[in-house]
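Re-run requested by the PI after the first attempt was lost when the workstation crashed. Everything re-entered from the original request form. Ligand of interest: acetyl coenzyme *A.
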Amino acid sequence: MSSQKKSDSIASLDQMAKFTFTKNGIEQTFEFPLLSQTLGPEVIDIRELYTKTGYLTYDPGFTSTASCESSITFVDGEQGLLLHRGYSIQDLANHCDFLEVAYLLLYGEIPNQSQHEKFEENIIVHTMLHEQLINFYQGFRRDAHPMAIMVGVVGALSAFYHDSLDLKDPEQRELASYRLIAKMPSIAAMAYKYSVGQPFMYPRNELKYAENFLHMMFALPSYDYQVNKTVARALNKIFILHADHEQNASTSTVRLAGSSAANPFACIASGIASLWGPAHGGANEAVLNMLKEIGKKERIPEFLNRAKDKTDPFRLMGFGHRIYKNFDPRAVVLKESCHEVLEAVGVKNNPLFELALELERIALQDDYFIEKKLFPNVDFYSGIILQAIGIPLSMFTVLFAVARTVGWVSQWREMIADPVQKIGRPRQRYIGPSQRQFNPVKER
Ligand code: ACO
């Protein structure tokens, strides 16, 4: 492949990528536009590849394929950089309230004081759920995983809020966005309350987003519950760190579902389903399960050896990332927060946390993990913090879903407004049988 200056006047395309294909001894050269990005490598526009050449591309896992244009989030895995609308995740996590970041993701600019207040008002009027929707919970088994409840109840929102389903109407899209962001903590906390047989706690709109969630999770009608400020700060940080992460599996799922003009509630439910997988949002729950399985420091080498053994499917949960081949910047923020929270809630000497910190220490010095650039990811530390602040294991991924809803909604809105957007319809490399003779059952 070579590239040369393109002489035509299309502003965003300043160069062409030239490909030479040789098939049956015949050489053919084709040119494709090179697109620039604000940050990151140039992108070859292959939209006309098939019509020009008759070839398809094969890229399972989309490791080299940009599926859309986006101006929301930028990740540089080599540098360990994560920006939302140009702002570093460290700045946002250390200085912002979650709804400030939500505003930034949705509208592209960091809000001033009055925009922030107005946005908060717009959100909090939607924190309650339709009373009939609350009956929905009774249909789930008591031992249902809260993520199963989340997929069901969020999907069911489309049966209750008919006035925010018209994708072509920007006001309805706005309303659906507010509803999703506002109701997600209420739906999540109710999923937990249902699983433990406690009464649902209604939202308290004078509380901040993270505080309100803690209230709905842990308050009881029978006593006065005070939100712990350190815990609320840590949760606010965790929410910000999980708010968006470019075109990951669940976000791509939301975009793909939305590309067929499915309603926003159904799209977000599909994102929740994708997030549930242990290779994605389920990883922080898997981290804790793994730590329990390891049990004591003496067994760490045994599990590290298993993680390195190609014949053993075991992987060290909370280590490695598809994009970050350097420290995950979210993990850096949470690592600091982790020590602070453990101290504040008085569990620093808990054996499970000591085990986690020892595992982190040993893995970071291990040649296998160093060579493969497998650093602790955000889930490693979020799992430890969530456990320390009393969030039950089965709620870990649910909290991730609460936070990521803002990202999903922002990405969905961006996609709907994109004039280039088409229904997502990947091609495939077919490796099944070619056409064959059919024989009726008696002749087989
Ligand atoms: N433990 C042991 N080995 C690992 C691990 C791990 N956690 N992660 C990757 N490797 C090894 C692989 O075996 C592979 O080795 P090889 O090159 O010798 O075949 C190499 O590192 C590259 O791994 P891939 O699976 O090709 O990397 P990929 O980018 O596809 O996977 C993933 C990334 C899924 C996150 C992987 O690192 C993993 O399974 N980690 C554990 C689960 C986890 O923590 N997920 C959370 C991700 S963060 C998030 O969703 C917010």
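Saved to the shared folder this time. Residues 59 and 65 are 7 Å apart (CA to CA).
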